[in-house]
Amino acid sequence: MAVLPYKDKQDSKKDQVAEMFNNISGKYDLLNHVLSMGIDITWRRKAIKYLKDDQPKLILDIATGTGDFAIEALTLNPDKIIGVDISEGMLAEGRKKIKKKGLEDKIELQLGDSEGLLFEDNMFDAVIVSFGVRNFENLEKGLSDMYRVLKPGGKVVILEFSKPTKAPMKQAYAFYSKAILPQIGKLVSKDNSAYTYLPESVQAFPDGMDFLRIMNNVGFTSNLCKPLTFGISSIYVGTK
Ligand SMILES: C[S@@+](CC[C@H](N)C(=O)[O-])C[C@H]1O[C@@H](n2cnc3c(N)ncnc32)[C@H](O)[C@@H]1O
């Protein structure tokens, strides 16, 4: 059964996810860095390095949110990065940040659903997504559309939370994500559910070999998984 942000509501997962990110958008960046103790910045950097030999010129950042993964991808020196997201609130925060950094000529943020991308087939040199795929309503549909818009030979780089498997990190992380993270998240974001949904959705989401199998089913080849920080998150790379 799908893990939903607001269990008492009847809306689809997609509508609930958009509503949740609209609610927390103003505090999203702050909470990201506080709750991960800044490690999320290192994770995005490591993930983008998987594209450094490819030198992609046109990049699509799926579930771009406030644009941090797109901004990190600028280290690859592309001509253009397009970021899409279903949350207008997250995009508004991202646009403010991009304007402040003077990056409007390089990064364009658009409202869009990754399970029905409005781009042509074989358009992008690389497709990237950080902490987005877990929120899709239909994971295979989202991954298939990413595959469709990627050029043959192009790579997809996916960064997503995973589950540490070894003691004592497994127990320590379970305690942190169930007892501490939701409390801090609730206090700062004022959304009672968003940071309870986070560990619940991580728990229910396929990781490691299970995720690689889904990438393979969708058509990606040469797939690899690199666990980060005791497996709290993982980088997945695949080729079209
Ligand atoms: C945890 S945030 C990640 C944002 C950013 N990539 C980062 O690393 O900080 C997840 C984002 O996925 C977006 N999202 C969820 N489902 C989506 C979909 N079907 N299409 C596009 N964006 C989606 C949400 O609106 C939210 O902004």
Describe this structure in words.
- This protein is an alpha/beta fold.
- The chain has a single domain (13-163, 205-239), classed as Vaccinia Virus protein VP39 (Rossmann fold, 3-Layer(aba) Sandwich).
- It contains eight helices and seven strands.
- The protein has helices at residues 13-35, 39-48, 68-73, 88-100, 139-149, 169-189, 194-204, 208-218, and strands at residues 58-62, 80-85, 107-111, 124-130, 150-161, 221-228, 233-239.
- The protein has a seven-stranded mixed beta sheet with strand order 3-2-1-4-5-7-6, with helices on both faces.
- Strand 4, helix 5 (139-149) and strand 5 form a beta-alpha-beta unit.
- It is globular, with a radius of gyration of 17 Å.
- The mean pLDDT is 95.
- The chain binds S-adenosylmethionine (SAM).
Bound chemical compounds: S-adenosylmethionine
- The low-confidence runs, each spanning 5 or more residues with pLDDT under 50, are none
User: What proportion strand?
Assistant: 15-25%
- The total of helices stands at 8
Helix/sheet category: alpha/beta
CATH class: Alpha Beta
**CATH homolog superfamily:** Vaccinia Virus protein VP39
GO molecular function: demethylmenaquinone methyltransferase activity
InterPro entries: SAM-dependent_MTases_sf (IPR029063), UbiE/COQ5_MeTrFase (IPR004033), UbiE/COQ5_MeTrFase_CS (IPR023576)
Function: Methyltransferase required for the conversion of demethylmenaquinol (DMKH2) to menaquinol (MKH2).
Keywords: Menaquinone biosynthesis, Methyltransferase, S-adenosyl-L-methionine, Transferase
